[in-house]
Amino acid sequence: MSLLRDEKACDMIRKLVSHPPYSEYISVFYEDEIESLQIYQHKGRKIIDSVRTKQGCIVPCLVLVQATGVMSNTSICKPSGLKVGIQGGILVNEHYECQSDRVNIPRHSLFAVGDAIEFPLTHPNHSQYTTIWRNWTSSREQAQDCALHSVRPVLCGKDMRSSTHRLVFSQTLRLFELYVACLGVYESDDSLDASYIWGDNQLWLMKLQFHEEKAGDEQTLHRLAGALVLGNTVKHYHIGNHLLQLIKNRCRFSQETRDQLVGNIEKFNFAHCLKELHEDDAFLERIPDPAPVRKFKNPLLKKKKKKAVKTSDQTVKKENQAEEKKHAEAVDNVTREIESKLTI
């Protein structure tokens, strides 16, 4: 849950685990912690029977697994005079150079990568904050970026190391029945920067984080800096891959293009709803705002009923099958068109 760093996404997971089938074997407690253990003796051995939380809840258990998370190893910092960040990690800059107050330590002599480091966020409104990525795959990419920065030569009097791009955070995982993609910088909940796109509140959510930048002609452009994608199909995972490429390439959009990108993803969500509805009529009841989908579906239903009065059952069946096939092809075409636009 801490990886999501977004209240709407966390609320989505809470709702998911509070309903069957997960609620049948999973109970989640929030803003609570273990206060004491209930232990009894059996043949000279201490066995845990239950735990009591600070809010007074008794939870029976046969096995207790208590996890505290990852703690950065900063034992090298004190004797070396290196700075430790507010979250307990080795403090580095955007090129993974360790920070120190000692004048006898050269600027480019000590580097650190991996989940032990703490570095500043890229969001302009949060430049005073630092973060730690608890993701082992980042270590390899950070080391590669660090090496490129440390050996890149000076070209025509310009230090080319300054052109090294900062690593873009990316992590994808499968959480219960959801595909989750955490990309770039998406921590801010500033409504001026973030665009939320909702689908079924238990199956689909996307957050796009844009940063405003000034172009040479003083035009304001919007750079896609981060995204958070949660969805129940592998297509949502693929959308995450497309967005990651836009983030890595530091793509900047005009206001019109940005709105078009958001609109295309909303259309994808709409097409996804139509596909689900084509297979399951009850899906309509689970959509927060079913009106647009119902408006699209109703003409087909009326057309079928009208034909049913004038023709035989066999003819109606064939015509209905043709309409359903035509409807499914239309949805597929919309989905393919939107996916192609997402690869800009």
TrEMBL record:
Top-level taxon:
Eukaryota
Entries under Gene3D superfamilies matching the protein: FAD/NAD(P)-binding domain
Q: Which InterPro entries is this protein grouped with? A: FAD-bd_OxRdtase (IPR050260), FAD/NAD-bd_sf (IPR036188)
The answer on whether this UniProt entry bears the keyword Flavoprotein reads: yes
- Keyword Metal-binding: yes or no? no
Annotated region (Disordered) at: 304-332
Q: Which cofactor does it need?
A: FAD
Question: Could you tell me where the Basic and acidic residues compositional bias lies?
Answer: 315-332
* UniProt xrefs under PANTHER family: NITRITE REDUCTASE [NAD(P)H] (PTHR43429:SF3), PYRIDINE NUCLEOTIDE-DISULFIDE OXIDOREDUCTASE DOMAIN-CONTAINING (PTHR43429)
Name of this protein: FAD/NAD(P)-binding domain-containing protein
Q: Native species of this protein?
A: Percolomonas cosmopolitus
